[in-house]
Specification:
By secondary structure, the chain is mainly alpha-helical. Helices cover 77% and strands 0% of the residues. The chain has 10 helices and no strands. It is globular, with a radius of gyration of 20 Å.
Amino acid sequence: PKWPLRILGTAMVVACEVAIVANPIGSSVMLSPILVAVPAAYLVVGTLIVERRPGNRIGPILYLMGLLIAGYQIADAIVKQLGPSGPAVYLAWAVTLLDAPVFALLAFLFLLFPDGRLPSPRWRWVALLVVVSGAISTVGTAIIPGSFAYYPNIENPFGIAGQSLSEVMPTFYMLTIVGVTLAALSLVGRWRVGGPTERAQLKWVATAAALIAIVMVAYLSLFGPGNYNDIADIATWLAFGFFPIAIGIAILRYRLFEIDRLVSRTIAYVLTTAALVA
């Protein structure tokens, strides 16, 4: 049934809007609506794919990613409102657990795109690597002692003392990242054997992924890790918001073959802007 997905998605977007308005992030008034629009894009596109391509697993994955992103923003706003005490401690713990699941879902987006199936049985070991490393990373994050990475003033209430856990955890976290990278490489094989339609679909996703990578690299290069800038934040969130839209266009095949025109115009605009700035 489509209405439960729509109702839940709408409720999460509204709750996300309320949470962000109650706890504005940064000094830019433009950032708050964009923060709401990004999970909304994942939820809307996921719902459309579930309804119009019911056998495609990409739809549920996008929808779940939208729920996780919206849930993160809601919980993060509550933690910042309440401070490092009471229920905020457990919400901070829940927020910290979201990293590995989001990376795992991203890996499966690449592995299953565009038809919702693995490219071949050979890729099952990559799927297994993502599931196992993601699960271990999540469990390890749940019980690793010390303060949270996102909230250094809050200690893990479920932390278990032990130096070995702190030493092993980065390895499994990196294995999850390796799984995402290998999953992205599966698109190369699809490109080699795909026809014109599938290649156009792959172009949309490759363009969106490349945009995210370019924005993130530029962000780190210009401002460095741990430093924030409102304009760069807007560009980053817009890039992440374009990703589900590109997937939706590719799978639903709405204006599918206009990707070449979009890329060429974007490059022309970027070069013109760079020349004017110079």
